[in-house]
Design brief:
The complex is a heterodimer of chains A (about 130) and B (about 200). With about 130 residues, chain A is mainly alpha-helical. Chain A has helices at about 1-5, 30-40, 50-60, 70-85, 90-95, 95-110, and strands spanning about 10, 110. Chain A contains 6 helices and 2 strands. Chain B has a single domain (about 5-180), classed as Glutathione S-transferase Yfyf (Class Pi), Chain A, domain 2 (Up-down Bundle), CATH 1.20.1050.130. In chain B, strands 2-1-3-4 form a 4-stranded mixed β-sheet. Chain B is globular. Classes of the chains: A mainly alpha (about 130), B alpha+beta (about 200). At the A-B interface, helix 1 and helix 6 of A face helix 4 and helix 7 of B.
Chain lengths: ~130, ~200
Protein backbone atom coordinates (compact mmCIF):
# COMPACT_ATOMS: atom_id res chain seq x y z
CA UNK A 1 0.00 0.00 0.00
CA UNK A 2 2.69 2.49 0.95
CA UNK A 3 4.39 1.73 -2.35
CA UNK A 4 1.20 2.73 -4.08
CA UNK A 5 1.15 6.03 -2.22
CA UNK A 6 4.77 6.70 -3.11
CA UNK A 7 4.12 5.98 -6.77
CA UNK A 8 0.85 7.87 -6.98
CA UNK A 9 1.28 11.25 -8.62
CA UNK A 10 -0.74 13.76 -6.64
CA UNK A 11 -3.80 15.25 -8.24
CA UNK A 12 -4.41 18.93 -7.78
CA UNK A 13 -7.44 19.80 -5.66
CA UNK A 14 -9.07 21.48 -8.66
CA UNK A 15 -8.76 18.31 -10.75
CA UNK A 16 -10.43 15.90 -8.33
CA UNK A 17 -13.54 15.61 -10.48
CA UNK A 18 -11.37 14.30 -13.33
CA UNK A 19 -10.13 11.32 -11.32
CA UNK A 20 -11.51 7.92 -12.17
CA UNK A 21 -11.16 4.38 -10.91
CA UNK A 22 -8.31 3.63 -13.32
CA UNK A 23 -5.97 5.62 -11.05
CA UNK A 24 -6.41 3.01 -8.34
CA UNK A 25 -6.00 -0.67 -7.67
CA UNK A 26 -9.00 -2.94 -8.27
CA UNK A 27 -11.43 -3.13 -5.37
CA UNK A 28 -13.15 -6.15 -3.90
CA UNK A 29 -16.96 -6.13 -3.93
CA UNK A 30 -17.08 -5.04 -0.31
CA UNK A 31 -14.66 -2.19 -1.02
CA UNK A 32 -16.69 -1.17 -4.08
CA UNK A 33 -19.83 -1.02 -1.97
CA UNK A 34 -18.14 1.17 0.65
CA UNK A 35 -16.66 3.40 -2.01
CA UNK A 36 -20.03 4.01 -3.61
CA UNK A 37 -21.84 4.34 -0.26
CA UNK A 38 -19.56 7.12 0.95
CA UNK A 39 -19.43 8.94 -2.37
CA UNK A 40 -23.22 9.16 -2.17
CA UNK A 41 -23.09 10.19 1.47
CA UNK A 42 -20.62 13.00 0.74
CA UNK A 43 -23.39 14.87 -1.10
CA UNK A 44 -25.27 15.34 2.18
CA UNK A 45 -22.62 16.31 4.69
CA UNK A 46 -24.98 18.92 6.11
CA UNK A 47 -26.75 16.08 7.90
CA UNK A 48 -24.88 15.36 11.14
CA UNK A 49 -25.30 11.59 10.80
CA UNK A 50 -23.23 11.70 7.60
CA UNK A 51 -20.11 12.94 9.34
CA UNK A 52 -20.61 10.52 12.21
CA UNK A 53 -20.96 7.65 9.80
CA UNK A 54 -17.81 8.65 7.90
CA UNK A 55 -15.85 9.06 11.12
CA UNK A 56 -16.98 5.70 12.36
CA UNK A 57 -16.03 4.05 9.06
CA UNK A 58 -12.53 5.57 9.24
CA UNK A 59 -12.09 4.33 12.80
CA UNK A 60 -11.18 0.87 11.51
CA UNK A 61 -10.07 1.69 7.97
CA UNK A 62 -7.13 3.77 6.82
CA UNK A 63 -8.97 4.80 3.64
CA UNK A 64 -12.69 5.18 2.89
CA UNK A 65 -13.08 1.80 1.19
CA UNK A 66 -10.69 -0.11 3.47
CA UNK A 67 -6.93 -0.48 3.58
CA UNK A 68 -6.60 0.65 0.00
CA UNK A 69 -7.01 4.08 -1.62
CA UNK A 70 -9.83 4.55 -4.10
CA UNK A 71 -11.64 7.25 -6.03
CA UNK A 72 -13.94 7.64 -3.02
CA UNK A 73 -11.04 9.13 -1.05
CA UNK A 74 -10.82 11.95 -3.57
CA UNK A 75 -14.53 12.58 -4.00
CA UNK A 76 -15.26 12.56 -0.27
CA UNK A 77 -12.11 14.57 0.52
CA UNK A 78 -13.23 17.41 -1.78
CA UNK A 79 -16.46 17.74 0.20
CA UNK A 80 -15.05 17.17 3.67
CA UNK A 81 -11.98 19.45 3.62
CA UNK A 82 -13.93 22.75 3.91
CA UNK A 83 -16.09 21.29 6.69
CA UNK A 84 -13.16 19.82 8.64
CA UNK A 85 -11.25 23.11 8.47
CA UNK A 86 -13.90 24.64 10.74
CA UNK A 87 -13.28 22.22 13.61
CA UNK A 88 -11.25 23.90 16.34
CA UNK A 89 -12.90 22.97 19.64
CA UNK A 90 -11.27 19.98 21.35
CA UNK A 91 -14.71 18.44 21.53
CA UNK A 92 -15.00 18.43 17.73
CA UNK A 93 -11.41 17.26 17.27
CA UNK A 94 -12.13 14.31 19.54
CA UNK A 95 -15.49 13.54 17.96
CA UNK A 96 -14.16 13.61 14.40
CA UNK A 97 -10.60 12.45 15.10
CA UNK A 98 -10.67 9.72 12.45
CA UNK A 99 -11.86 12.08 9.72
CA UNK A 100 -9.07 14.52 10.65
CA UNK A 101 -6.46 11.74 10.48
CA UNK A 102 -7.72 10.70 7.07
CA UNK A 103 -7.97 14.26 5.67
CA UNK A 104 -4.34 14.80 6.70
CA UNK A 105 -3.29 11.54 5.01
CA UNK A 106 -5.07 12.43 1.76
CA UNK A 107 -3.77 16.00 1.62
CA UNK A 108 -0.24 14.66 2.02
CA UNK A 109 -0.44 11.72 -0.35
CA UNK A 110 -3.15 11.81 -3.00
CA UNK A 111 -4.18 15.43 -3.40
CA UNK A 112 -2.16 18.61 -3.85
CA UNK A 113 -3.94 21.23 -1.76
CA UNK A 114 -2.86 24.90 -1.89
CA UNK A 115 -0.92 25.56 1.35
CA UNK A 116 -3.46 28.07 2.68
CA UNK A 117 -6.37 25.65 2.22
CA UNK A 118 -4.73 22.69 3.95
CA UNK A 119 -6.23 21.39 7.15
CA UNK A 120 -3.92 22.33 10.02
CA UNK A 121 -3.49 19.37 12.30
CA UNK A 122 -2.26 20.03 15.80
CA UNK A 123 -0.65 16.84 17.06
CA UNK A 124 -0.09 18.36 20.48
CA UNK A 125 -3.77 18.47 21.35
CA UNK A 126 -4.49 15.86 24.00
CA UNK A 127 -7.62 13.94 23.24
CA UNK A 128 -9.33 11.64 25.70
CA UNK A 129 -8.81 8.01 24.76
CA UNK A 130 -11.65 6.61 22.74
CA UNK A 131 -13.19 3.78 24.67
CA UNK A 132 -14.91 1.09 22.70
CA UNK A 133 -18.64 0.94 23.34
CA UNK B 1 28.45 -6.85 0.37
CA UNK B 2 27.20 -9.99 2.04
CA UNK B 3 24.63 -9.76 4.79
CA UNK B 4 23.42 -12.61 6.95
CA UNK B 5 20.54 -12.29 9.37
CA UNK B 6 20.18 -15.01 12.01
CA UNK B 7 16.92 -15.40 13.90
CA UNK B 8 16.45 -17.53 17.01
CA UNK B 9 13.14 -19.28 16.41
CA UNK B 10 12.62 -20.35 20.02
CA UNK B 11 13.24 -16.92 21.52
CA UNK B 12 10.50 -15.74 23.92
CA UNK B 13 9.86 -12.96 21.37
CA UNK B 14 10.84 -13.71 17.81
CA UNK B 15 12.74 -10.85 16.16
CA UNK B 16 10.05 -10.11 13.58
CA UNK B 17 11.10 -6.47 13.04
CA UNK B 18 14.51 -7.48 11.65
CA UNK B 19 12.89 -10.29 9.68
CA UNK B 20 10.30 -7.93 8.12
CA UNK B 21 12.99 -5.39 7.22
CA UNK B 22 15.00 -8.15 5.52
CA UNK B 23 11.85 -9.26 3.74
CA UNK B 24 11.32 -5.71 2.42
CA UNK B 25 14.81 -5.88 0.90
CA UNK B 26 14.49 -9.42 -0.44
CA UNK B 27 11.12 -8.76 -2.13
CA UNK B 28 12.26 -5.47 -3.67
CA UNK B 29 14.02 -5.09 -7.00
CA UNK B 30 17.38 -4.08 -5.51
CA UNK B 31 20.30 -6.15 -6.71
CA UNK B 32 21.49 -7.70 -3.48
CA UNK B 33 19.64 -9.82 -0.98
CA UNK B 34 20.00 -10.73 2.67
CA UNK B 35 20.67 -14.32 3.60
CA UNK B 36 18.24 -15.34 6.36
CA UNK B 37 19.00 -18.29 8.61
CA UNK B 38 16.85 -19.62 11.40
CA UNK B 39 18.29 -21.25 14.48
CA UNK B 40 16.19 -23.69 16.48
CA UNK B 41 17.36 -22.22 19.78
CA UNK B 42 16.36 -19.54 22.27
CA UNK B 43 19.19 -17.26 21.22
CA UNK B 44 21.65 -16.86 18.37
CA UNK B 45 25.14 -18.30 18.49
CA UNK B 46 27.63 -16.40 20.59
CA UNK B 47 25.06 -14.09 22.21
CA UNK B 48 21.92 -14.09 24.34
CA UNK B 49 20.12 -12.00 21.71
CA UNK B 50 17.25 -13.34 19.60
CA UNK B 51 18.80 -11.90 16.45
CA UNK B 52 22.09 -11.01 14.84
CA UNK B 53 23.17 -9.40 11.62
CA UNK B 54 26.58 -10.13 10.20
CA UNK B 55 27.60 -7.45 7.73
CA UNK B 56 31.11 -7.25 6.29
CA UNK B 57 32.49 -9.29 9.17
CA UNK B 58 30.84 -7.06 11.78
CA UNK B 59 28.25 -8.64 14.10
CA UNK B 60 25.32 -6.60 15.45
CA UNK B 61 22.77 -8.02 17.89
CA UNK B 62 20.79 -4.90 18.82
CA UNK B 63 17.57 -4.98 16.83
CA UNK B 64 17.14 -1.20 16.55
CA UNK B 65 20.69 -0.93 15.25
CA UNK B 66 20.02 -3.74 12.77
CA UNK B 67 17.03 -1.79 11.38
CA UNK B 68 19.20 1.34 11.08
CA UNK B 69 21.95 -0.54 9.25
CA UNK B 70 19.50 -2.07 6.79
CA UNK B 71 17.82 1.32 6.16
CA UNK B 72 21.24 2.86 5.59
CA UNK B 73 22.28 0.16 3.14
CA UNK B 74 18.95 0.01 1.30
CA UNK B 75 17.60 3.57 1.31
CA UNK B 76 15.40 2.95 -1.72
CA UNK B 77 13.58 0.17 0.14
CA UNK B 78 13.57 1.19 3.81
CA UNK B 79 13.10 4.65 5.30
CA UNK B 80 14.88 5.12 8.60
CA UNK B 81 12.95 6.57 11.51
CA UNK B 82 14.59 9.82 12.59
CA UNK B 83 16.10 9.37 16.04
CA UNK B 84 14.65 5.84 16.36
CA UNK B 85 12.31 7.03 19.11
CA UNK B 86 9.48 4.60 18.40
CA UNK B 87 11.78 1.78 17.31
CA UNK B 88 13.44 1.94 20.71
CA UNK B 89 10.06 2.27 22.40
CA UNK B 90 8.93 -0.92 20.65
CA UNK B 91 11.94 -2.98 21.68
CA UNK B 92 12.20 -1.54 25.21
CA UNK B 93 8.52 -1.32 26.17
CA UNK B 94 6.39 -3.62 24.07
CA UNK B 95 8.29 -6.90 24.49
CA UNK B 96 6.42 -7.36 27.73
CA UNK B 97 4.14 -10.15 28.82
CA UNK B 98 2.61 -8.33 31.78
CA UNK B 99 -0.56 -6.78 30.41
CA UNK B 100 -0.88 -4.12 33.11
CA UNK B 101 2.57 -2.86 32.23
CA UNK B 102 1.93 -3.17 28.51
CA UNK B 103 -1.41 -1.31 28.71
CA UNK B 104 0.26 1.95 29.77
CA UNK B 105 2.49 1.91 26.71
CA UNK B 106 -0.27 0.82 24.35
CA UNK B 107 -2.22 3.89 25.50
CA UNK B 108 0.77 6.04 24.56
CA UNK B 109 0.95 4.44 21.13
CA UNK B 110 -2.81 4.81 20.68
CA UNK B 111 -2.65 8.52 21.61
CA UNK B 112 0.26 9.02 19.20
CA UNK B 113 -1.82 7.52 16.39
CA UNK B 114 -4.83 9.82 16.98
CA UNK B 115 -4.20 11.92 13.89
CA UNK B 116 -1.67 9.64 12.22
CA UNK B 117 -1.99 6.85 9.69
CA UNK B 118 1.68 5.88 10.05
CA UNK B 119 3.92 6.25 13.07
CA UNK B 120 6.02 8.91 11.40
CA UNK B 121 5.07 10.82 8.25
CA UNK B 122 2.84 9.49 5.51
CA UNK B 123 4.42 6.17 4.63
CA UNK B 124 6.32 3.32 6.27
CA UNK B 125 9.47 3.93 8.22
CA UNK B 126 11.47 1.48 10.29
CA UNK B 127 9.33 2.68 13.23
CA UNK B 128 6.25 1.01 11.74
CA UNK B 129 8.26 -2.15 11.08
CA UNK B 130 9.67 -2.17 14.62
CA UNK B 131 6.39 -1.59 16.44
CA UNK B 132 4.34 -3.92 14.23
CA UNK B 133 6.93 -6.69 14.43
CA UNK B 134 7.19 -6.48 18.21
CA UNK B 135 3.39 -6.53 18.64
CA UNK B 136 3.16 -9.48 16.24
CA UNK B 137 5.66 -11.38 18.34
CA UNK B 138 3.78 -10.65 21.55
CA UNK B 139 1.26 -13.42 22.19
CA UNK B 140 -0.83 -11.11 24.38
CA UNK B 141 -1.61 -8.84 21.47
CA UNK B 142 -3.72 -11.02 19.15
CA UNK B 143 -7.02 -10.57 20.96
CA UNK B 144 -6.23 -6.99 22.01
CA UNK B 145 -5.81 -6.01 18.35
CA UNK B 146 -8.80 -8.02 17.19
CA UNK B 147 -11.13 -6.59 19.82
CA UNK B 148 -10.13 -3.01 19.01
CA UNK B 149 -9.29 -2.20 22.63
CA UNK B 150 -7.00 0.54 21.29
CA UNK B 151 -8.87 1.76 18.22
CA UNK B 152 -6.03 3.63 16.54
CA UNK B 153 -3.53 0.84 17.15
CA UNK B 154 -5.91 -1.72 15.67
CA UNK B 155 -6.57 0.35 12.54
CA UNK B 156 -2.86 0.99 11.94
CA UNK B 157 -1.97 -2.65 12.68
CA UNK B 158 -4.53 -3.94 10.20
CA UNK B 159 -3.22 -1.67 7.41
CA UNK B 160 0.23 -3.22 7.76
CA UNK B 161 -1.12 -6.75 8.21
CA UNK B 162 -2.78 -6.36 4.79
CA UNK B 163 0.63 -5.68 3.22
CA UNK B 164 2.05 -9.04 2.19
CA UNK B 165 5.56 -8.09 3.32
CA UNK B 166 4.52 -8.04 6.98
CA UNK B 167 2.35 -11.01 7.85
CA UNK B 168 4.09 -13.35 5.39
CA UNK B 169 7.25 -13.48 7.51
CA UNK B 170 5.42 -15.48 10.17
CA UNK B 171 4.53 -18.28 7.77
CA UNK B 172 7.99 -18.11 6.22
CA UNK B 173 9.55 -18.65 9.62
CA UNK B 174 7.25 -21.52 10.60
CA UNK B 175 7.96 -23.27 7.31
CA UNK B 176 11.71 -22.71 7.54
CA UNK B 177 11.84 -24.00 11.11
CA UNK B 178 9.80 -27.09 10.21
CA UNK B 179 12.22 -27.84 7.37
CA UNK B 180 15.10 -27.30 9.76
CA UNK B 181 13.64 -29.78 12.28
CA UNK B 182 12.96 -32.35 9.58
CA UNK B 183 16.51 -32.23 8.30
CA UNK B 184 17.87 -32.32 11.85
CA UNK B 185 15.78 -35.43 12.50
CA UNK B 186 17.01 -37.08 9.31
CA UNK B 187 20.59 -36.30 10.23
CA UNK B 188 20.01 -37.75 13.69
CA UNK B 189 18.49 -40.95 12.27
CA UNK B 190 21.36 -41.19 9.84
CA UNK B 191 23.72 -40.86 12.79
CA UNK B 192 21.91 -43.65 14.65
CA UNK B 193 22.18 -45.94 11.68
CA UNK B 194 25.91 -45.45 11.59
CA UNK B 195 26.18 -46.24 15.28
CA UNK B 196 24.09 -49.33 14.71
CA UNK B 197 26.28 -50.49 11.87
CA UNK B 198 29.40 -49.99 13.93
Amino acid sequence: MADFITNFSKLSFADISKADDSHFADLTNEQKALSSQFQTLSARLDEPESLESLNSNLRTKTFVAGNVASKADLVVFEKVLPVASKWTAVEDLAKYRHIIRWVDLIQNTLVEVPEGDKLKVNNDVELPREVKE
Amino acid sequence: MSLTLSIAAKAPFVAYPALIAANFVNTSDVDSSILIEFIDEKSVEGSDSSVKLVSAGKTVTDQVEILSILAEQFPSVLTAELGNVWSKFAVDKLYVKNFKELAVDLEKLDAHLNFKSFISGYSYTTADIAVWGVLRANALMGSVIKNGVYTNVSRWYSLLADDSRFESVVEFMIKSVNDLRKSAKTAKNGGKKETHKA
